[in-house]
Amino acid sequence: xxxxxxxxEIKSDAGVILVVCGDPTQxxxxxxxxxxxxxxxxxxxxxKCWDFDPDKRPDACMCAATLSPxxxxxxxxxWKEARWLDNWIMEYIPMFENTIQGCITQGALDPDVAYxxxxxxxxxxxxxxxxxxxxxxxxxxxxxxQRLPLLESKYLxxxxxxxxxxxxxxxxxxxxxxxxxxRVRSSSTPGRRPKDPVAQILRAISRLRQPVRISxxxxxxxxxxxxxxxxxxxxxxxxxxxxxxxxxxxxRLVRHYPDDWHPDVARFxxxxxxxxxxxxxxxxxxxxxxxxxxxxxxxxxxxNGNFLSRRAGTLEKVVTSYEILGLHENAxxxxxxxxxxxxxxxxxxxxxQAFRIPLARTLVRYHQVLCRLGRDWNDSDVxxxxxxxxxxxxxxxxxxxxxxxxxxxxxxxxxDLADA
Length: 420
Hints:
Strand order of the largest sheet: 1-2
Strand content: under 5%
Structural class: mainly alpha
Number of strands: 2
Radius of gyration: 30 Å
């Protein structure tokens, strides 16, 4: 559920054995740090299942009773239709959490950073004192069993210390001098800025970590809220400037959500998300993303021929992913569709020559895939694909500046002809 194996932070098998089977006072469960925000009741259920006393672990009926209200089919179904988006959002969440962690660390070392990070200037002294009491209650519960996610707990402790310090400053705010009263630290107008933007960010992240409990529209609202809060409230305090480098990509992600059939989303899938996973070598996810983009371009091109070229290019990425995964029959079907699209493009006025070479190269790939599938050279599909590709290449060569250009033309396309 977190993407990591249990005890992934322990580098040796012997170390894992010691924390699971060793001294009872040193044992611990595989609870991750920070604790992910899962749907209500799920973390408690996991902790019970990890109990070292078998008699205290819940049985299957208790687990089923706990889980049944957690996942609501009406919301889960919609989310699963956009699983690529779920994956991409989860790529960003740890980045944002690391930035918050960095600001907390800086705030613990520098009171002025903590003051700005916690946005205390917008709070009156009365509001500070009231919130301090609430924080003490929350943190007391955190220490006595009602555990908060680790990042939220760290932030609240930083905020408690910062508010305590600020209250002391406000008490000494009015200093008597020869000329009267002088205010040491001024307070901005209450309500003009979010009173606790970091808490809002953490709540937004919490909602995104349990998407089956909210609708896609609510996910979209949460994403946009998170982007604005990070851009306006946290990015200016991020000394590493890391956040400012990743926010533009995140903005592209949320701009059209939940309208993820917008043309810009299809372009985002191919130009950003697909290439991102190519660099990471995640070919399974590359295939899923390419298929999602191809499906969108397929629908868009039904009513707008301008998307045919993007559809063809995306189908080639689908083919590449299929071939890497050894799914040659699927690659053959995708290539057949790409050939049909390129044929439509070559029959369009003004586009005949621009798409003939891409068509030829796709025909060559089709021929190669048929051979990998064990199709005989006497098979009409194999022969026809090869013949059509060579015909296009020969025509392109002779369209050069006369016979003197034939040699250079053959040299230009010789690699593809050799493949054929």
